[in-house]
C-alpha cells in the first residue's frame, strides 16, 4: 500500500506540469517522477526527526496554500457550494445517478486517502499532536480545497481530469506546483516511516525475516530505518511508476488498499473494545454496525475496479503474507525443536565426562537464543570435537524496549554447573539505540564484567562441604534445587564476622586468594584468544511431511535464510574468530 501511495502522490504532483508544458508526454512525466522517487528513498536513512524538522515549514505552507486557493475558488466561482454540507444532498445524488453514484464512491474514497497513515504515525508522534494537527490544520485545509474544486467544476465541468491545477490562479501556479512536489515527498516519507515501524514490530515477534533495523531517534522507539526494506519498496515504486504510467489504475489499487485498511482497523478495534476495554456490548455493536456498513459500501464500489489495477495490492499482499507466515512457522518450529532437545544443566558434568571432553586454552562464546539449558548445538560440538575452551560462555543477545542499557548492567551472568567447569550463562542486554560493540571492545568489556561477577560470587558464596552444591550470588545457579544458606550460618572459622556498625561481610584470606586466581586466569585466557561459536542450523522437513510443508521448509525458508544477513555480520564478529557448528533440525 505504501508503494501505491507514494507513486500516486508523486505522479499527481508532477503531472501538473502539463498545464504549462502541454507537449510533455506520459513517458516524459514518468521519467521526471522516477528521480523524485529515488530522492525520496535516499533521504530515509536520516530518520523521521531530521526529515520532519527539515520539511515541516514546507508542509505548513502547503496547507495554507490549498486552504487559501479553496476559499478563492468558492468565492469566485460558486459560494453556494457550501450547501453540500447538508447530508440530504447525498440522497439526492444517489436518486439522480443510481448505479453510477455507487460506482463513483470508489473515486470519492480517494479524497480521504492518507488518513490511515495516522495509525502508523502513532509510533512517531503522540496522540495529542496527531489530534490537534488533524482537526485543526489538515481537515479544514483539505475540506476547503475540495470544496473549492467542486465550485470550480460547477463553472467548468469539462476540466474534471485535472481540476486542481486548472483551478489555480495564474500567478500561483509555479509556487503551488513546487510546494506540491515537495509535499508529496513529505507525505510519502511519513508513510515509509510507518511501514518501517510496523515491520520492525513484526521482526521482533519472529514474523518477518531477519533484517538490519537502525533506530534513528534516541527518544522514540518507533522511529526506525530498515535498509533492505527501503531498497525493495523503492524498487517496487519505480517499477509500478514505469508500468502503470498514469494515476488512474494506481488510484484504483490504492483505493482498495485504503478501504481494506479501514475495514481491518474497525474489526481489530472491535476486538480491543470487547476484550481489552470491556465496553458495553450494545455500544460495541453500534460501533461495529455503523462503521463496517459504511466501509463495506465503499469497498464494494472500489472492488468494481479490481481488473483495472485493483488486483495488484492483493498480489503484493499474498506474496508478503506467504513469506511472513513461512518465516514465522519455521522460526517457531525450530525454537520448539531446540527446547525439546536441550541438555539439562544438572547433566553437564555427565555430558563432559561421557565424551571425555578436553579443556583447551582460550575463551569460547557460544551464541544461542535459549536462556535456559544447554542448546543442542553444544551437544553436537562435544560429540564431533570433544574439546571445550578453558572458559566457556553461553551467550544470548536481548534487545529491550528502552533507549539505552547502562554499561554496568549490560551483562547478566549465571554459573552453569560446578564452579570448576568455569562455564557461564551470559545475557547481553541492549537498548534500541545501543550499538553492538566491535569484537575487541566486546571481549574486553565482557572480561571485566565476568571478573566482577567472580568477585561478587566469592564474596557472598558459602563454603560448603564437598558433597553440597554451590550457587551464584544472584540467587540460585542453573540446575540447583537446594535452598541456599545465609552467610551468618557458616562456621566462624571460614568467615570473619563484621563489626556491629558495618553490615558488609569481609572476605576470608582463602576467598581473596581464590578471587585473584580466577581473575588472573580470565586475563590469561583472554590473551590466548576468544573464539565465537555459532550454530549453523539447516532446517528441513521430516521424512513423512506433506508436500506443502516440504516446499515451505526446504525451499521457501531455505531461500530466505540464504539471502538474508547472517548473524555474525549483525554482531560484527571477525571471520578469523568465528567457528560455525553445523546442525540439521528435522521439523
TrEMBL record:
- Keywords of the record: Ion transport, Membrane, Potassium, Potassium transport, Transmembrane, Transmembrane helix, Transport
Task: Classify the source by domain of life.
Answer: Eukaryota
The principal localisation class reads: membrane
Region (Disordered) location: 462-501
Q: Where in the cell is it found?
A: Membrane
Q: Which parts pass through the membrane?
A: 29-47, 59-81, 101-120, 132-152, 172-203, 224-244, 250-274, 281-299, 311-330
Q: Which InterPro entries match?
A: K+_transporter, K_trans_C, K_trans_N
Q: Name one GO molecular function term.
A: potassium ion transmembrane transporter activity
**Gene Ontology CC, one term:** membrane
Which residues does the UniProt record annotate as the domain K+ potassium transporter integral membrane?
Answer: 9-349
> Membrane topology type, per the record?
Multi-pass membrane protein
- Limits of the K+ potassium transporter C-terminal domain: 361-587
Is the Transmembrane keyword given for this protein? yes
* Function of the protein: Potassium transporter.
What family classification does the UniProt entry report for this protein? Belongs to the HAK/KUP transporter (TC 2.A.72.3) family.
Q: What is this protein called?
A: Potassium transporter
Organism encoding this protein: Aegilops tauschii subsp. strangulata
Amino acid at each position: 500500500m505504501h508503494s501505491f501511495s507514494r507513486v500516486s502522490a508523486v505522479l499527481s504532483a508532477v503531472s501538473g506540469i502539463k498545464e504549462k508544458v502541454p507537449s510533455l508526454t506520459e513517458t516524459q512525466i514518468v521519467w521526471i517522477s522516477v528521480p523524485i522517487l529515488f530522492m525520496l528513498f535516499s533521504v530515509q536513512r536520516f530518520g523521521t526527526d531530521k526529515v520532519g524538522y527539515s520539511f515541516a515549514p514546507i508542509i505548513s505552507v502547503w496547507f495554507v496554500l490549498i486552504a487559501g486557493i479553496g476559499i478563492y475558488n468558492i468565492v469566485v466561482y460558486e459560494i453556494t457550494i457550501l450547501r453540500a454540507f447538508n447530508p440530504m444532498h447525498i440522497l439526492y445524488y444517489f436518486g439522480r445517478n443510481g448505479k453510477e453514484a455507487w460506482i463513483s464512491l470508489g473515486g470519492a474514497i480517494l479524497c480521504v486517502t492518507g488518513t490511515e497513515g495516522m495509525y502508523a504515525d502513532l509510533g512517531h508522534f503522540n496522540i495529542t499532536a496527531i489530534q490537534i494537527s488533524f482537526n485543526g490544520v489538515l481537515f479544514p485545509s483539505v475540506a476547503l480545497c475540495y470544496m473549492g474544486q467542486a465550485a470550480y467544476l460547477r463553472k467548468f465541468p469539462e476540466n474534471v481530469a485535472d481540476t486542481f491545477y486548472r483551478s489555480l490562479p495564474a500567478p500561483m501556479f509555479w509556487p503551488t506546483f513546487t510546494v506540491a512536489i515537495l509535499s508529496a515527498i513529505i507525505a510519502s516519507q511519513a508513510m515509509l516511516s510507518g511501514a518501517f515501524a510496523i515491520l520492525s514490530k513484526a521482526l521482533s515477534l519472529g514474523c518477518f525475516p531477519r533484517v538490519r533495523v537502525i533506530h534513528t531517534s534516541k527518544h522514540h522507539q518507533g522511529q526506525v530505518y530498515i535498509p533492505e526494506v527501503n531498497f525493495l519498496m523503492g524498487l517496487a515504486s519505480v517499477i509500478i511508476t514505469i508500468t502503470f504510467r498514469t494515476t488512474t489504475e494506481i488510484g484504483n489499487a490504492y483505493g482498495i488498499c485504503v478501504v481494506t485498511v479501514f475495514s481491518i482497523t474497525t474489526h481489530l478495534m472491535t476486538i480491543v473494545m470487547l476484550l481489552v476495554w470491556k465496553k458495553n456490548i450494545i455500544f460495541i455493536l453500534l460501533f461495529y454496525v455503523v462503521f463496517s456498513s459504511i466501509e463495506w459500501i465503499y469497498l464494494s464500489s472500489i472492488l468494481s475496479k479490481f481488473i483495472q489495477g485493483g488486483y495488484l495490492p492483493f498480489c503484493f499482499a499474498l506474496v508478503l503474507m506467504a513469506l511472513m507466515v513461512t518465516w514465522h512457522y519455521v522460526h517457531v518450529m525450530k525454537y520448539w525443536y531446540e527446547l525439546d532437545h536441550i541438555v539439562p544443566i544438572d547433566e553437564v558434568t555427565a555430558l563432559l565426562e561421557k565424551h571425555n571432553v578436553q579443556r583447551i586454552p582460550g575463551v569460547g562464546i557460544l551464541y544461542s537464543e535459549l536462556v535456559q539449558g544447554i542448546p543442542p548445538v553444544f551437544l553436537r560440538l562435544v560429540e564431533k570435537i570433544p574439546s571445550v575452551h578453558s572458559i566457556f560462555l553461553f551467550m544470548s543477545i536481548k534487545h529491550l524496549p528502552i533507549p539505552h542499557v547502562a554499561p554496568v548492567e549490560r551483562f547478566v551472568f549465571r554459573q552453569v554447573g560446578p564452579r570448576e567447569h568455569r562455564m557461564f550463562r551470559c545475557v547481553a542486554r541492549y537498548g534500541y539505540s545501543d550499538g553492538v560493540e566491535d569484537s575487541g571492545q566486546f571481549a574486553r568489556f565482557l572480561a571485566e564484567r565476568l571478573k566482577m561477577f567472580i568477585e561478587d560470587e566469592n564474596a557472598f558464596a558459602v563454603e560448603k562441604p564437598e558433597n553440597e552444591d554451590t550457587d551464584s550470588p544472584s540467587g540460585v545457579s542453573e540446575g540447583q534445587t537446594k535452598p541456599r544458606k545465609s552467610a551468618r550460618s557458616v562456621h566462624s572459622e571460614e568467615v570473619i564476622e563484621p563489626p556491629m556498625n558495618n553490615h558488609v561481610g569481609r572476605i576470608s584470606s582463602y576467598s581473596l586468594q581464590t578471587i585473584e586466581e580466577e581473575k588472573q586466569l580470565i586475563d590469561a585466557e583472554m590473551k590466548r584468544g576468544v573464539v565465537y561459536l555459532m550454530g549453523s542450523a539447516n532446517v528441513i522437513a521430516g521424512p513423512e511431511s506433506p508436500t506443502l510443508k516440504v516446499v515451505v521448509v526446504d525451499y521457501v525458508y531455505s531461500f530466505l535464510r540464504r539471502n538474508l544477513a547472517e548473524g555474525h555480520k549483525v554482531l560484527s564478529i571477525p571471520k578469523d574468530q568465528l567457528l560455525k557448528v553445523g546442525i540439521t533440525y528435522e521439523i
